Structures are given as structure tokens and as C-alpha cells.
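Supplementary Methods, section 5.1.

A reviewer requested that the exact input to the structure prediction be made available. We therefore reproduce it here, unchanged from the version used in the analyses.
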Amino acid sequence: MFANKFTAIVTALVAAAAAVSAAPSIVFSPPITSPKAGDVWPAGTTQTGLILLGYIEDGSEDEHLDIKNPLAVNFPISAGSASVEVPSVTPRDDYVVVLFGDSGNTSPKFTITN
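The structure derived from this sequence is encoded cell-by-cell as follows.
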């Protein structure tokens, strides 16, 4: 259900973006609609619409992005989504995902469990 809802939201965003001509001077900055603050992702599950995993510790602005192990690569942002497998990482409740394109959009903090 979570993936279907996210896919529907992203599809609507892609349709809206397609209606606007992507001229070189326009920055395409799609919002991250998932994960939402407080979401929990069990390791090994597949989520949609991600690229890099990182975390933000309280009192810090550093995103600790794992650029060596991207969650998704080489997909056009205009595609609207990319399916990825949640990596087996240290469980914590301050993970974020970042979508890179014309600008980097960061999700709210969420949890990954084992």
C-alpha cells in the first residue's frame, strides 16, 4: 500500500512536470514524498523513489551521505520513481534519502530496522 500510494503521488508529479516544457533554464526539483518523518523501513524491503542514503545526527547539518553505495543510479528524474532495496545498515532513526538532479532534495528523517 505504501509503495502504491507513493507511486501514485510521484506519477502525478511526473505528469505535471511533463506538462511544463523542460527548458534548459528551468530547474526540475521534485519533492521527496517518501519516506515521511517517522516511517520505518525494514532492511531487505524494496522502496520506491530513492537515490542516496545518509543520516543527520541531532545538532548537525551533515547528511553523512553514502556516495559509494547509491540506492539508485542512471534513471531519469522525469521517470518519477526508482525501486531500490533497503540496505542492511546499522539500525537508527535519523536516516534520510537525497535525490540529486538539478538540486538535492532531502527527505525527513526516518528509521531503518533489521
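The chain has one helix and seven strands. These observations are discussed further in the main text.
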